Amino acid sequence: MAKIHQNGDTPTLNTRVLPVNASNIGKICSKSKEEIETSFIEDWDLDTSISNPDITLLKQAADELRHSNVPVAFPTETVYGLGADATRSEAVRGIYKAKQRPSDNPLIVHFSSLKQLRDLLRPSASPHPSSHQAPSQQSQTGSDSDPIPAIYHPLIKQFWPGPLTLILPLPSPSPLAPEVTASLRTFGARIPAHPLALALIHLTGRPIAAPSANASTLPSPTCAEHVFSDLQGRISTILDGGPCDVGVESTVVDGLSVPPVVLRPGGVSLGELRKCDGWEDVRVGYEDRSLKGEAEGPRAPGMKYRHYSPRARVVLYEAGKKLRKEGLESVGKVGIIRTKRWKIPDGFDLENQAVDADQKSRNGEPSQNGTDASKERLNPLARILAPPIPSPRRLIPSSSESTLTSSEIWDVPLTASTKAIARGLFSALRDLDRLGVDVIYVEGIDDGKGRREGDEGERNDEAHDGGTRDSNEEKDLAAAIMNRLRKAAEVEFAVTE
Ligand code: TXA
Ligand code: MG
């Protein structure tokens, strides 16, 4: 269990959740001559001449980021972030205080444009540190003409704005507060793809340090209500832009080492990275428990630091394993997260239920109301409304003969594409927690690690993947999903029967 921040622990602030419609925040004006859609991240401006409630809220949030030491929660395309001005120590300390987490984990710094990042890497007070480097070294160190190391250029072209964080050398002197980097000589940088995140950073005019906006150890928040549930009373402002599209955090890559390394799997896959110049040999640098070749039965709990964990006990089944019947026979509340193959367990049916009342707000209504396709085409900052995230549904015994005694079983069917599983996973863990389940059984998915030839399983529904095996890119997103699940789980089942 992480040691939590003890100072000023009592939640006393009045927390407001402010829906902001991305379609109303105005057109961006690219400062480059090229096509807006492809190059606007070089340097861009927001047309602030229009005035409406959405822009007013964004400007207020930007003011808070500039002047207050209480962080502001905002949506990104991956998960909600808890932002603070990365150049002010007191503001950054506010993040650790609100999250109640130890300050030894470095934070990602978010930028709205490449110009803003280059300005930070090239502090005017001193000559650039790479100016005496030989050209051969500039792939990792940057050059006078571009302080962003050349190794990252193909990735930036391909994936920014987007779910990719680059590890960069800290400039000297560094404008970043030391609390951001946890004493490292590098820092993580990302330009997010969410229009509200971009507009907020732009209006603030500062680099924004932001970890995921959850309380320490809980799953990352993928909608405003998750943030509210964790940080109510600890922060003042949550910008609500609806549910996040990706649902798992950004991929973190280190191109400063040779060969380059993936430090955290996430929204950009290994396969996609390998297609880029200089990244063909990228290595996996994160530790992930794999069940390959392990003995049968559950692993001992408490083998690792828990993270992304709901309060309920999480039991992860590797892909291809059947849900154990005895798990459902125990008395207590049970949650089931189904992904690719599991069906509703034998002996159970869906109870007729109205959609969870808060499902609507979670799925972006009314904040995204009024979004129409023509506005989205006009405004590259606007985004397509994402499909809904499934809520838990109650299962009831299908016949009176049922011998199953569990008092309550809740089912979350994330049975669709790997992308939809990523989007809905953290929400499912949190929803089941809110329902007070004692244990959550999760059907893992094939990431090429946990499954062995000859595994048993229900193989009759390949149709979920269009009747084909998962593509490499799907597998890589699956790796990000399983990485989070292995961290959340207390026990895992390698083999079921
Ligand atoms: O999608 C995301 O990345 C979200 C949204 C809000 O942008 N942010 C996020 O931040 O997940 P956080 O603080 O929860 O995770 C930051 C990750 C950690 O794994 C941290 O160790 C790594 O980035 N990191 C940050 N700076 C680093 C550095 N200098 N060297 C190595 N790893 C670093
Ligand atoms: Mg986090």
Question: Can you describe this structure?
Answer:
This protein has 497 residues and is an alpha/beta fold. It has 2 domains: 16-284, Alpha-Beta Complex (DHBP synthase), CATH 3.90.870; 313-355 and 391-493, no CATH class. It has 15 helices and 20 strands. 47% of the residues are buried. Mean pLDDT is 80; it is low at 1-7, 125-133, 290-305, 354-358, 364-380 and 451-469. Residues 211-212, 220 line the site of magnesium ion. Residues 55-268 form the YrdC-like domain. Residues 122-147, 353-378, 447-474 are annotated as: Disordered. Residues 460-474 have a biased composition (Basic and acidic residues).
Short note summarizing the structure:
With about 500 residues, the protein is α/β, with parallel strands linked by helices. Helix content is about 25%, strand content about 15%.
Give the topology, please.
Layout: E1 16-19, E2 28-30, H1 36-39, E3 44-46, H2 53-67, E4 72-74, E5 81-85, H3 89-99, E6 108-110, H4 114-121, H5 138-141, H6 153-159, E7 164-169, H7 178-181, E8 186-190, H8 195-204, E9 208-209, H9 224-231, E10 237-240, E11 251-254, E12 261-264, H10 270-274, E13 283-284, E14 313-317, H11 325-329, E15 333-338, E16 348-350, H12 359-362, H13 373-378, E17 393-397, E18 408-413, H14 418-434, E19 439-443, H15 472-488, E20 491-493
Parallel strand pairs: 1-10, 4-10, 6-8, 7-11, 12-13, 14-19, 14-20, 15-18, 15-19
Antiparallel strand pairs: 2-3, 4-5, 5-9, 6-9, 7-8, 11-12, 16-17, 17-18
Bound molecules: threonylcarbamoyladenylate, magnesium ion
What's the arrangement of strands in the largest beta sheet? 1-10-4-5-9-6-8-7-11-12-13
CATH superfamily of the largest domain: DHBP synthase
Number of separate structural domains = 2
